[in-house]
Amino acid sequence: MKDIHEVIIIGSGPAGLTAAIYTARAGLTPLVFSGPTPGGQLTTTSLVENFPGFPEGITGPELMDKMREQASRFDARFEDLAVTAVDFSSRPFKVTAELPTGDPPRTWESKAIIIATGAATKKLGLPSEEALWGRGVSACATCDGFFFRDKKVAVVGGGDTAMEEALFLTKFARQVTVVHRRDKLRASQILQQRAFNNSKIDFAWNSTIQKVLGEEEGRVTGLLLQDTITGALREFSCDGLFLAIGHLPNTEIFKGQLPLTEDGYIIVHDRTKTAIPGVFVAGDVADQHYRQAITAAATGCMAAMDCEKWLASVGSN
Ligand SMILES: Cc1cc2nc3c(=O)[nH]c(=O)nc-3n(C[C@H](O)[C@H](O)[C@H](O)COP(=O)(O)OP(=O)(O)OC[C@H]3O[C@@H](n4cnc5c(N)ncnc54)[C@H](O)[C@@H]3O)c2cc1C
């Protein structure tokens, strides 16, 4: 007979690992699939200064190693694999992953599931953007704005997020330039007005970023912009670039299994519950608003507690 797990957690970012710590301490021996990015988004950043408990800050990879170590200490189990398919149509739920050995895909069964697959920042797709990621290129003003006190920064995008990021950055930066490929913003009128009225914000209209400059210096020194109408190229000097062109929730494998929002986020009912009893969700995969490690961890805790209660309520059924 196949083993049926009490709970499988899909994802090993702050949400998944916090859910693992809580379900493990509740004696549920969770099985965690760590996926394509073990440790999640924070493993791609250097210093994290806003996670409580670390007054001097902590590097993203170190924080995530500690969370995994903590979960392992309470007997959480890990499969360092990406889930390629799920079947939530009947219980026990089924989770399938390809094996690195090239053997046929394997399927695991579980009474409950916690989804914590996170989201990815939409990028411009430039090699220079990758080279300078974390060296002036960021996707989170709340996380990194503090490092740009009295500096000149650019924000790329034209929607609400871009305006919110630009407005937030004016608390630190001396100048914030919004780079937008059109001559009009998509953002709501109220945010547009706030940005237009802020003397620290200006706009590079009809402009696309061809290259992030500063690879030789090892930090962002400017942008190579192209005018979308004339095709003319110009160099724009700045110390940082914030991407605000959107996020992609990692929900490909849940399409057809769970209702998703138009943007692909998992729809949450009643705290951390999804449309299917026994399937819970935590972190950025269901959160378009906060996108912080601490909020992901908090919802991981909530999902674990909701899951534990649900398992107790259904008993051995
Ligand atoms: C560069 C950068 C810097 C940041 N800095 C800060 C900061 O200073 N402070 C802060 O609070 N927040 C910061 N954030 C935001 C923070 O990282 C996220 O809010 C947080 O990581 C979200 O946690 P999560 O667990 O929901 O998802 P993620 O961290 O995105 O983790 C998702 C997990 O799901 C796994 N996964 C995905 N698909 C599958 C699959 N098919 N099968 C199995 N597993 C899968 C991935 O491998 C990963 O382990 C930063 C983000 C970035 C990108």
Question: Would you mind describing this structure in some detail?
Answer:
The chain has helices at residues 14-25, 60-73, 127-131, 141-144, 160-169, 189-197, 293-314, and strands at residues 4-10, 31-33, 47-48, 58-59, 77-79, 83-87, 93-97, 106-115, 119-121, 137-138, 152-156, 175-179, 201-204, 207-213, 222-227, 233-237, 240-243, 247-249, 279-281. The chain is of the alpha/beta class. The protein has 2 domains: 4-120 and 247-314, FAD/NAD(P)-binding domain; 123-243, FAD/NAD(P)-binding domain. The strands form 5 sheets. Strands 1, 2, 5, 6, 7, 8 and 19 form a 7-stranded mixed sheet that branches. It has a 5-stranded parallel sheet with strand order 10-17-11-12-13. Bound molecules: flavin-adenine dinucleotide.
Helix proportion range: 10-25%
Report the count of strand segments. 19
- Helical/strand content category: alpha/beta
Q: Any idea what the radius of gyration is?
A: 21 Å
Separation, N- and C-terminal Cα atoms: 17 Å
CATH class of the largest domain: Alpha Beta
Q: What are the low-pLDDT stretches, counting only 5+ consecutive residues below 50?
A: none
Order of helices and strands: EHEEEHEEEEEHEHEHEHEEEEEEEH
Helices, by number, come to: 7
Domain count: the total is 2
